[in-house]
Amino acid sequence: MAYAAVISLKQTIHHLLNSSHISIHSPSRETLQAAYKQLTSLQEALTRSDDDTSSTRRNRLNAIDTQIREAVHQLQDSLESHASHHFQHPALPPLHLEFTSQEIISFAQAANKMEKAYVQELQNPNFQDDDRDSAATLPIHNSAVKMVGLSDAIADIKDHVLRILRPDYYGVFTFFGDAGNGRSIVARGVYDDVYVGGERAFDCGAWVRIGSTYQLKQILLNIIAQINKIDREYLSSEGEEELGEHLCASLRGRRYIVVLDDVRDAEILGRLRRSLPEQNNGSIVFLTTGVSEVAELDEGFFRYDIPVVLSEMISWRCIGSLIKSRGWLISPEFEKAGKKIAKNCRGFRLVVAKVMVALLRSEKTLNLWRKLAADIDDPVFTVDDEISEAIEIKRYLHEDNVREADFLFDLSTLINKVKENLYPKRLFPPMGIMTVYGMAGVGKTTLVRHIFQDSSILDSFDHRAWVNIGPKYQSKEILIDILAQIYPHISKTNIKKDVKLVKNLYAQLSQKKCLIVLDDLWSQEPVHFLKKFMPNIKGELVVTTRLFKVGIFGPCDRAYKLRLLNKEESWDLLREKVFVRERCPSQLVKPGKKIAENCEGLPLLILAVADLLSRSQKTLEYWNKVAEKKNPDVMNAQSEIAKGLLHSFETQPQHLKACFLYMGVFPQNHEIPTSTLMKLWFADGFLEPNPSQAVEDFASKCLNELVERSMVMVKQGSDLKTNKTCCLHFCLLASILPCCYEEQVFPCLGCLC
Fold first, then answer.
1. Which of the two residues, 153 and 264, has the higher pLDDT score?
2. 305 strand-pairing partners
3. Cα Rg for the chain, rounded, in angstroms?
4. 286 DSSP β-pair partners
């Protein structure tokens, strides 16, 4: 490729101009500097094609690219032949380039013309992509083969797709922890922010404390009085059943928030839930409890465990610093008792604050301290009603001008974390995005199609739509493609022409739950286009892509990398496809496993080979030939798969193309040391970092990008930070080797450095 050749020639000229081993005559130096400047301009022009995915335009650009590459290689050879003797004999007189000066000038002129032609082709306003077949198309094998090696992935992704999604769906949130550790304070902080403070729009809200001595009727009356803003006495004559029905009717259709504080009995919670309608309009129920049976009453509950953050040492520091600040001296006996008192607080922030008030307001006697130290059941170490006791404790602390305990009541970090989960930041506020990514042929589409057609999915969504994207997809078509599937009785032509109809159809979807799949996404543009016209669509958006970054739209999105199959799974898939319900003859097991292993875990290749085997002789001789890679039909199938993978290479930026092609120098199945690879990239002129960027950082960034683009593999469950080697799948290697020889990448290895 021209880009790699240009960088290599630039590096050669740079070394000539800055070498300490040879000197260059002044006119020759000026000529080289002019050539270097022209090469830099040419390099910038070549990078402008990075965003163009049209295969027709790419073919035209490739023709110009070839001309540039050949001209660069010719000048590279000429410079190296003239300079090599001076590198070997540094004591020679200054280098004169009279013989090549005219050649360099001619190259600069030709390069300028080729650059203009390249830019003109990129800017051609009359360009029309007449290539009807997507370059990314891979062979599709329609088969009733079971989903081998994907059971965990299917279960994981289904659970994610079927989860309760905030903020527009109903949710019960449990704040779990012992009384005195701040569970009710956190819940109150969230309640005050989102409801009382008006951060979120609710039609009504109520806060009630249950406790140990509750009366169901009084609880129901309390909630009704708050949500309807009426006097409790108005309904005091009603019984529990009537009040429960009245509450349910009052909440139905309204977006509400109800907090049930200090729930200690699962039975009362079950009875109250019958009066709290589960409606997917953003309604919320908060529970605070220290009882596991209550917190785990329903597997659909969202649980927040309030952590114990105060150690015994920190608790004692709080108590001791307060006492010392009042001028009291703490003897060793007091300190020993004080540390035991701190231990009795069990790290609960409200208990520590309560003890601070108690010690501050009592006589400072060793007997009192020892008594508290010996009695962990003393009332000072317990908190019954967090909210009322916190108010009382803060009042006492304020009266005594105590500031040392302020941080004990600061739960803003936990409150904000809860709010982030309640109202996650997403591209589509009421819709989650799930991305399944991995190299071409790994089974992304097959996996998602299986989930898309699952009966539990069908029952959980009002509408579904599947859109095949590909690299040439016109983003403006996405809205039409989705609506045409959801409303099949309306012709696609009418949807395209009638703007008012589109708005009406979208309005009908506003209260519906939709599952939308965008298969083979190559850029984020279609999703952003969908966001522009359907910003409030609800449900789940599932994306399949080869490019990790394409599928990430926000911190709350989920990405699932689909792995290659292991040896056992590969053989299971091959055997299942070839023999279906029949048993595999014992003599074919050994060569069959070798054939499956040769596919290196790529499901698409396994199915292609299995398809050929199922239609061929099932003899030991034939299978041995396939296992030894001597069968032309199987080799052709592998070549076809490799061609389908080539688009992953063609859509990469120029600098990544150069780095990736370089990896073709390594043999098949070779574990490439990442540190060695990055050093070679730089040494042979394939990297050109910014002046402010370290070479190692830029090389690491390039390698990470290749991994994220599913071009380079690291070991399963690892990454480049912990894994010291990487490799290429042999199908990708097979796809780039012809490019390596055509682009003359390998001759660049060993250029002047």
1. 264
2. 176
3. 35
4. 173, 259
Average pLDDT for the chain = 84
Q: How many percent of the chain have pLDDT more than 90?
A: 34
DSSP bridge partners of 340? none
Strand locations in 569-641, DSSP E?
A: none
Q: φ and ψ at 434, to 5 degrees?
A: -120, 125
The CATH code for residues 155-163+425-561 is: 3.40.50.300
3-state helix, strand, coil in the chain (%, to 5): 55, 10, 35
Residue type, 85: H
CB 595 within 8 A of CB 633: no
Taking every pair of C-alpha atoms in the chain, what is the biggest distance, in angstroms? 114
DSSP secondary structure letter of residue 465: E
**Burial of 312 per CB tally in 10 Å (0-12, 13-18, 19+):** middle
H or E element, residue 458: helix 455-460
Q: Which is nearest to 160 in space by CA: 439, 369, 397, 451?
A: 451
**Comparison of pLDDT for 16 and 430, the residue scoring more:** 16
Highest mean pLDDT among 145-159, 208-222, 671-685: 208-222
Question: Which CATH number is correct for 2-122, 1.25.40, 3.10.450, 3.40.50, 1.20.5?
Answer: 1.20.5
Axis-axis angle for helices 332-344, 349-360 (nearest 10): 140
**CB-based contacts of 106, cutoff 8 Å, min separation 6:** none
3-state secondary structure 141-196: CCCCCCCCCCHHHHHHHHHHHCCCCCCCCCEEEEEECCCCCCHHHHHHHHHHHHHH
CA 581 – CA 126 distance, rounded (Å): 56
Query: What is the model's pLDDT at position 335?
Result: 92
Residue 208 neighbours by CB under 8 Å, 6+ apart: 219, 222, 223, 226, 258, 259, 260, 261
Q: What gap in Å lies between CA 594 and CA 492, rounded to an integer?
A: 49
**Higher-confidence residue: 405 or 192?**
192
Which homologous superfamily is 171-305 in?
A: P-loop containing nucleotide triphosphate hydrolases (3.40.50.300)
Residue 580 neighbours by CB under 8 Å, 6+ apart: none
Do 147 and 446 touch, CB atoms closer than 8 A? Answer: yes
Instruction: Pull the structure tokens for residue 276.
Output: 């709290």
- Going by C-alpha positions, the residue among 202, 210, 358, 349 that lies closest to residue 270 is 210
Q: Identify the CATH class of 652-748.
A: mainly alpha
Phi, psi torsion values for 219, nearest 5 degrees:
-65, -45
**What is the rounded distance in angstroms from the CA atom of residue 293 to the CA atom of residue 298?**
9
β-bridge pairing 171-176 and 302-305 = parallel
Tell me the pLDDT tens digit for each residue of 572-608.
Answer: 999 999 998 889 999 999 999 999 998 889 998 999 8
